[in-house]
Structures are given as C-alpha cells and as structure tokens.
Design brief:
With about 325 residues, the chain is α/β, with parallel strands linked by helices. It has two domains: about 150 residues, Glutaredoxin (3-Layer(aba) Sandwich); about 100 residues, no CATH class. It is about 50% helix and about 15% strand.
Length: about 325
C-alpha cells in the first residue's frame, strides 16, 4: 500500500511539472509573437520588421585620426589637387543625422571633381559600432574618419576661426587650401552647391589661355552693361597696368587678322585675339572702347606708326 501511494505521488509531481513546462512554453511563444506584431486600434495585426543586419563586407571603414593627421587632411598640394569639403558630425547629433542624406547626394553629384570626407566626433568606442552602422544605413561612400583628440578646443581652432564648436560643421577649401565657405549648423544645399561650382569654374579658368579667359569675361559682363564702351576702356586700362597689351579682332578677315597678329606679336609683343562669335551692338561698342584705349597706349609706347604695319612686311 505504501509503495502504491509513493508511485501515485511521483506521478502527480511529474504531471505538475509537465503542466508548468507547457504553460511556460505558451507564455514564451506569446511574448515572442507580441514582440513581432502590434495590433492596430481596429484589431488588425501588423508585422514588425526585424532590424536589417548589415553584412560585414558592406560596413564602411572608419579611420581614427589625431590632431596632426587632421591637419594633414587639409593640405592641397600639386597640380592635380582638388577642392576639399569636410563635414564634422556625430551620431548623437540630430541635425547631423538629418542633413546626411543631402550630403550623400552632394557626394554623388561632385564625385571625381572634389574631395569630400567626413570626420566623426563620436567616442572612440563607436568607431566599430554606431559610426560605421549609420554610414552604412546612409549608403555613404565618402572617406570616413573619427577624431580622437586630447583637446577639442585646439582641434576646433585648427580647423577654422569661425567654428564655435557646434555640430554639424561644414567647411570647403579650394584646390590651394584656402577656406572659401564654412557653416556651423545644417548646410543650405543651394548655397553650398553654388560655392563649389564657383571654385570649379575658377579652377578651369586657370587652365585656359589668355584669349579664352578674355572672351569668357567679356561675354559674362556684356549683357548687363549699360555703357559697354566705357567698360571696354576700363578693362583695357586694367590690362595695361598689368603689363598686357592686346588687341581684340572681330574676325571679319581671319587671314589678314592672323598675319597682322603674327607681326604685332613678333615685333612688339602685342597679343591679338579673335572674337569669332555673333556681334551684338553692345559687344561691338565694348571692343571699340577696349581697342581705342589699347591702341593709344601702343602708339605712346612704340610710336604712331606701330599700327600702320602692312601685312606684306
């Protein structure tokens, strides 16, 4: 009898244990389901998307730099140097995160034309965590750095006198390393684009010959001139002060002009530029004002007969 009661007691314990396991399993399943689904007010279940895991191969590399390395990033050397755009940011900075998609678009637009880098001011512990994770989410391809400095004040001062330490901070250098634009706070994209375009145009202009530069300058100004003759005179006087003596031909007789240009260049060092484009009234007046002023200086310097050279000479 005693043995029977003992077996009965054991059976009850096993039954209770199985019941506890069953209840625990159901509660765990319900909790898991609750984490994955939410219920709208109308009772409809909504599946919550799991966080997207970023493959290790797609995680951007973030390089740690110090104050010295930061200063080296600013250097623009050599004939192939490009303008440099730097954005200082942090993952804990809401305005930084908000403007980042625009910066990614900017990088795509000017890729190959400028150098664009980002410098995070997050804690060093985030160099393999939140910083690359955020950059991957933004699909940012700009070279990324994280600044570890013993003195934030000295680092800020080394970047720009205009930077008061707030984030985000964006600064643009031309190809020679001179600051041409900076802003503390979210950038105004249209203004930043305009500043970048100005640098690129100036950079291209430096590779052009003097005649092409003169043509671009004239055509840029001519439409808004109220007195093109006077502007021509003024530009000629400016060029004379710079030691430039040049005549603008309107391209009516290209052969004769080419022969005369060669003679003036060989004998007096006077440059002659062809202006082969549609002649407007303003453009004709501008050229007239420019040439009269230049011719007066040529006669003063080389005598009255300097411009009476025959093309047969």
């Amino acid at each position: 009898m005693k043995k029977f009661l003992t077996n009965q007691l054991r059976a009850k314990k096993i039954f209770v244990l199985l019941g506890i396991i069953f209840v625990f399993t159901q509660l765990n399943a319900a909790e898991t389901s609750a984490q994955r689904r939410r219920v709208k007010p109308n009772g409809e279940k909504v599946l919550i998307k799991k966080p997207v895991k970023i493959a290790a191969a797609n995680v951007p590399k973030v390089t740690q730099i110090d104050d010295f390395a930061l200063k080296n990033l600013f250097k623009r050397e050599g004939e192939t140097a490009k303008p440099l755009l730097i954005n200082f940011w942090a993952t804990w900075c809401d305005p930084c995160r908000e403007e980042f998609p625009d910066l990614v678009k900017l990088d795509e637009q000017y890729k190959g034309k400028i150098d664009f880098i980002t410098v995070s001011l997050d804690d060093l512990a985030e160099i393999r965590r939140d910083v690359p994770k955020f950059l991957a989410e933004m699909k940012a391809e700009m070279p990324a750095y994280l600044l570890k400095t013993a003195s934030e004040e000295s680092a800020i001062a080394a970047v720009s006198k205009e930077w008061q330490g707030g984030l985000p901070f964006t600064i643009l250098f031309n190809e020679k390393g001179a600051t041409v634009y900076s802003r503390q706070g979210k950038v105004k994209l249209d203004i930043l684009r305009s500043e970048i375009d100005k640098i690129l145009v100036e950079q291209i202009a430096q590779t052009l010959d003097e005649g092409t530069k003169l043509k671009i300058k004239i055509l840029d100004d001519i439409a808004n001139l109220t007195d093109p003759f006077q502007k021509g005179e003024s530009d000629a006087k400016e060029d004379i002060l710079l030691g430039k003596l040049q005549i603008i031909n309107k391209g009516e007789d290209s052969l004769a002009n080419a022969q005369l240009a060669r003679i003036l260049a060989d004998k007096y060092g006077i440059k002659t530029f062809e202006f082969n484009c549609k002649m407007t009234t303003k453009l004709i007046e501008y050229i007239k004002g420019y040439n009269i002023t230049t011719e007066t200086e040529i006669k003063r310097k080389f005598g009255d007969k300097a411009l009476e050279i025959s093309v047969e000479n």
